[in-house]
Design a protein that fits this description.
The complex is a heterodimer of chains A (about 250) and B (about 270). Chain A has about 250 residues and is an alpha/beta fold. Chain A folds into 2 domains: about 160 residues, P-loop containing nucleotide triphosphate hydrolases (Rossmann fold, 3-Layer(aba) Sandwich); about 80 residues, no CATH class. In chain A, about 35% of the residues lie in helices and about 25% in strands. Chain A is built from 9 helices and 10 strands. A 6-stranded mixed beta sheet of chain A has the order 6-7-8-3-9-10, sandwiched between helices. A 4-stranded antiparallel beta sheet of chain A has the order 2-1-4-5. The two termini of chain A are about 35 Å apart. The model of chain A has no long low-confidence stretch (mean pLDDT about 90). Chain B has about 270 residues and is mainly α. Chain B has a single domain, classed as MetI-like (MetI-like fold), CATH 1.10.3720.10. In chain B, helix 9 runs parallel beside helix 10. Chain B is flat and about 75 Å long. The interface between A and B is medium-sized, with 33 and 20 residues.
C-alpha cells in the first residue's frame, strides 16, 4: 500500500538524511523503524507526508506518486494517509469529539465546515471511533484535560476518522509511561489487522518493536541496515545499530 | 579544581563583580540625569503647587456637595459614553481581525500582504484617538458618532497588533496536524487557529473595551458626545457641583468596566 523507492533527502547544508531508501508496507502490516538519533527516521516520515520535499525518489500511496504533486492535487492524494505524532497535537480547547471529527474535514468542502461546523453524521461516526479506542465516555470533555495516553488514543481516533489506508506514527509512545505505551502499540497492532491498515511506526523502544511489529527496519545514516521479520531479527543486529550510532 | 587553579578564577570573578558594580552605578547616575532633564523640560515648579493649593481647594469647596438633584441629566450621556466605547471596540475588532491574520507571519498568505497589514495597523496606532476624533468631527459633525469612529479606527492599531502577536505565538503543531488530515486552509483556520486563540482574543478585546470607555470620556472634550462633553460644558459654565457629580459617575463607570473586564478575562483564562 505504501511504497517508498530510492528516497533521498539532502538538506541545504549538505547533510544527507536519507540515501536511496526503499521500503514497502503492505495493508494489514505493522512495520517498525528503529534507529538512533539523527539516523533519518523523522526525515523519512516527513518526506513520505511531503512535509519535506525529498531530493530524489518516489513515494507511492496506492497508485499515486506523492512526489511532484502540490496544492490541491497533493491534498487530495494525501487523504488516505494519516499520521500520529509524538505529542497528540490536539486542539486543546475543543472537545474530544470535535477533535476526532476534524479528521473528516478533508472529505467536506461546504460552507458549514468552512465556518467551523462539523456534519452530524461525522460526529456520530467520530463517537464510534472514540468507542473503538476505548474513550467513548470522554467525548464531550475538553482535549486539553486528557492525560498523555488518552490524548494519543484520541489522536489515533482522529486518524481513523480520516478513513486512511496508511497510518504513519512518529514515536507515538515516546512521552508515555510503559503501560500506556503498551496500550497504544496494542491498539496500532489491532488496527493494522482489523482495519487492514498499512502502519509505519518509528520507535525507540526495541522491546515494543519485538512485541508488536511484523517487520523491523533498522536505519543508520539514512540507509537501511536490516529489514527483517521480527522472528528473524537478531538482538545483536539491533544492539549494533545503536552502538554504531553512539560511536 | 585545585586550590592553585581556583585562586585566579576567584580573582577574575571579583574583578567581574567590581565591574558589574561600576556598571550599576553608571546606570543609576544615567537614570537620575534622565529624571532631572525631564523635570527641566516640563518646567517643574513644585512651589507653584503649594501657592496654588488655595485655588484648588476653592474649586473643590465649590464642587461640594455633588448636585444629586441633577442625577436624571446624566443617564443619557453615560449611555452614550458606554455605547461609543462598545461601537468603537466592535468596529475595531471587525477591522482588526482580517488585518491581524494578514499581519501574522505564520498564517499570512503573502509577504506583501503582511507588510501592508503591518503598515495599516502601525498607522492606525500612531495617530492618537483625539486626532482621529477631530478628523471625524470635521467629516460627520459633532456628536457621539465621530467619537465612536475615532475609537474604532484607533482600536485597529492596538487590537490588530495584539491579535497578530497572539496568532504568531500560538502552538503550531496542532495546526500542522490538522493540515495533514487533508483539511483545507479555511477549515484549518476555523477548526484549529480560531479555537486555539479565541480566549486570548476575547481577553484582549475586553481589555480594549475597558480602555475605550476611558478614552470615550476624553473624546467628549473635542465634541464627540458622552459624559466628557457634558463635563466640559459644566466646567465652562462654572457648575462645579454638577462637575463633581459627573466625576463620581465617571469613577463608577471606569472602575465598574475595569472590574467586569478583569472578571470575564479571569473566567476565560
Amino acid at each position: 500500500m505504501l511504497r517508498v523507492c530510492d528516497l533521498t533527502m539532502r538538506y541545504p547544508n549538505g547533510k544527507v538524511a536519507l540515501a536511496r531508501f526503499s521500503l514497502t508496507v503492505n495493508a494489514g502490516e505493522l512495520v517498525v523503524v528503529l534507529g538512533g538519533n539523527g539516523s533519518g527516521k523523522t526525515t523519512l516520515l516527513r518526506c513520505v507526508t511531503r512535509m519535506l520535499d525529498p531530493t530524489a525518489g518516489e513515494v507511492w500511496l496506492g497508485d499515486t506518486n506523492l512526489v511532484g504533486l502540490s496544492g490541491e492535487r497533493l491534498r487530495q492524494a494525501r487523504l488516505p494517509l494519516a499520521m500520529i505524532w509524538q505529542q497528540a497535537n490536539l486542539v486543546r480547547r475543543r472537545s474530544v469529539l470535535s477533535n476526532v471529527a476534524s479528521g473528516t474535514l478533508g472529505r467536506h468542502s461546504g460552507l458549514w465546515t468552512a465556518l467551523g461546523g462539523l456534519p452530524a453524521e461525522e460526529l456520530r461516526a467520530a463517537h464510534g471511533y472514540l468507542e473503538e479506542v476505548g474513550l467513548g465516555e470522554l467525548a464531550l470533555q475538553r482535549a486539553g484535560t486528557l492525560s498523555g495516553g488518552q490524548a494519543q488514543r484520541v489522536a489515533i481516533a482522529r486518524a481513523l476518522a480520516q478513513h486512511p489506508k496508511v497510518l504513519l506514527a512518529d514515536e507515538p509512545v515516546a512521552s508515555l509511561d510503559p503501560e500506556a505505551a503498551d496500550d497504544i502499540m496494542r491498539l496500532l497492532r489491532r488496527l493494522a489487522a482489523e482495519e487492514n491498515l498499512a502502519v509505519l511506526c518509528v520507535l525507540h523502544q526495541v522491546e515494543l518493536a519485538y512485541e508488536y511489529a511484523d517487520r523491523v527496519v533498522g536505519l543508520r545514516g539514512g540507509g537501511i541496515v536490516f529489514d527483517l521479520p521480527c522472528s528473524e531479527l537478531p538482538r545483536d543486529a539491533v544492539r549494533r545499530l545503536y552502538l554504531s550510532e553512539a560511536a | 579544581m585545585t586550590a592553585d587553579a581556583a585562586v585566579p578564577r576567584l580573582i577574575e570573578r571579583s574583578w567581574g563583580g567590581a565591574l558589574s558594580l561600576a556598571l550599576r552605578l553608571v546606570l543609576l547616575l544615567a537614570l537620575i540625569l534622565i529624571v532631572i532633564q525631564s523635570a527641566l523640560v516640563v518646567h517643574a515648579r513644585p512651589q507653584d503647587l503649594v501657592t496654588g493649593a488655595y485655588g484648588m481647594a476653592d474649586i473643590i469647596r465649590r464642587a461640594m456637595p455633588p448636585d444629586f438633584a441633577e442625577i436624571n441629566k446624566i443617564w443619557w450621556p453615560t449611555l452614550e459614553t458606554v455605547d461609543i466605547a462598545i461601537f468603537g471596540t466592535v468596529g475595531g475588532v471587525i477591522m482588526a481581525t482580517p488585518l491581524a491574520i494578514l499581519a501574522a507571519i505564520n498564517v499570512t498568505p503573502s509577504r506583501y500582504l503582511y507588510y501592508f497589514a503591518r503598515g495599516v495597523i502601525g498607522f492606525a496606532r500612531s495617530v492618537p484617538d483625539l486626532v482621529w476624533a477631530l478628523l471625524f468631527v470635521t467629516a460627520v459633525g459633532l456628536g457621539p458618532f465621530p467619537g465612536a469612529l475615532a475609537l474604532a479606527v484607533h482600536s485597529v492599531g492596538m487590537l490588530g497588533r495584539l491579535f497578530a502577536e497572539t496568532i504568531e505565538h500560538m502552538e503550531m503543531a496542532p495546526i500542522d496536524a490538522l493540515s495533514l488530515t487533508g483539511a483545507r486552509r479555511l477549515q484549518v483556520f476555523t477548526h484549529g487557529v480560531i479555537p486555539s486563540v479565541l480566549p486570548a482574543l476575547l481577553g484582549i478585546t475586553l481589555y480594549r473595551l475597558d480602555e475605550n470607555i476611558r478614552s470615550s470620556l476624553v473624546l467628549g472634550f473635542v465634541g464627540a458626545g458622552g459624559i466628557g462633553f457634558e463635563l466640559l460644558s459644566a466646567m465652562s459654565l462654572f457648575q462645579y457641583r454638577l462637575v463633581s457629580l459627573y466625576l463620581i459617575v465617571t469613577f463608577v463607570l471606569v472602575i465598574g468596566a475595569e472590574r467586569l473586564s478583569a472578571l470575564v478575562r479571569a473566567r476565560l483564562a
